[in-house]
Amino acid sequence: MKPLNSTITAIPPSGIRRFFDIAAEMDDVISLGVGEPDFVTPWRIREAGIYALERGYTTYTGNAGLPRLRELICADLASRYDAHYDPATECLVTTGVSEGLDLALRVMLDPGEEVIVPEPCYVAYQPCVSFAGGTPVGVPTRAEDGFAIDVAAVEAAVTPRTKAILIGSPANPTGAVQPPEVLRALVALAERHDLYLLSDEIYDRLTYEGVHSCLGAVPGARDRTVVLGGFSKAQAMTGWRVGWLAAPRPIAELCLRVHQYTMLCAPHVSQMAAVEALSNAERDVAEMVADYDRRRRVFVKGLREAGLDCPEPAGAFYAFPSIRSSGLDAETFAERLLREESVAVVPGTVFGPSGAGHVRCSYATALPQLEQAVERIGNFLRRL
């Protein structure tokens, strides 16, 4: 048989999944691994989806998404972050943020062009660059700096083939929130070298310290920036698969063109539910965010008392403790913790080389389970 696509063949399966395949065969596992809210989608949003089904909203929508939803997305960006986009020409509703990222990369990249990706980073960033024909270039960040992007290191990685910089803030897996001065410096760098910027802001509402800064609102950024967001995290709508991208018209139009031929549109019922989420679910979101913040403080305190050095995450719902004091590498630590104490975490190396010596723990689970997980981690460390 002729060989299959060499780019896809060369990319390994997600490193996260191996541990959950093991965990699925075990009893009494506390999972701190999956980046998914443990909250059910708020009732008012579910009810809007049910009502949409009852009224027969089971057809395609326009390719760009429901006009009302795009209007609400753009109004929200303007009111929260002073980031202004035309809902008719600069906003596209996507099937999750993942599709938005794929669209933007395919539109931006010609074969072999490079995308700089500060890491540790979300596991899909670098493979998605490769799938789009590009070459990902990782640039490390450090726990000692709060995983803030080293703009000088990013600039040192720029070559004649560099096309874009891809960041996530608040970040998966570290929970880091990029300071405004770092974002301004990145924009200045992009202007100097004529680069595009892609900003994954799916965790924007899950910012606990300070205020989220939308990259598209930074002076000088708008004409070269794609902002990605969605409803999976703050509104607990992972399975509804609704995201969006906001970008200058030339980029948004080409993203829409690819979207027309591949996904066609996001699910109609899900878009109706998302309209309700932006219109009437602010109180629900605020309550969930406040609960994540409580868990964050309790969980990080518990990890530190158990003997792990853990930076205070400013956003998202992940802690990224150092496990170097254990004397184990991240893979061994995660596998032994799962087998010996039935706690599932993710090795930091899954998210890039600078994740070595760390594990990712999601605190998007109930507080009693988090407290039990911390107790088990403490037991594990005491036996080493």
From TrEMBL:
Pfam families: Aminotran_1_2 (PF00155). Gene3D superfamilies: Aspartate Aminotransferase, domain 1, Type I PLP-dependent aspartate aminotransferase-like (Major domain). Signal peptide: none annotated. Keywords: Aminotransferase, Pyridoxal phosphate, Transferase. CDD domains: AAT_like. It comes from the Bacteria. Its EC number is 2.6.1.-. Its cofactor is pyridoxal 5'-phosphate. Residues 28-377 form the Aminotransferase class I/classII large domain. It is an enzyme of class 2 (transferase). The keyword Transferase applies. One of its GO terms (molecular function) is transaminase activity. SUPFAM superfamilies: PLP-dependent transferases (SSF53383). Belongs to the class-I pyridoxal-phosphate-dependent aminotransferase family. This is Aminotransferase. It comes from Pseudonocardia kongjuensis.
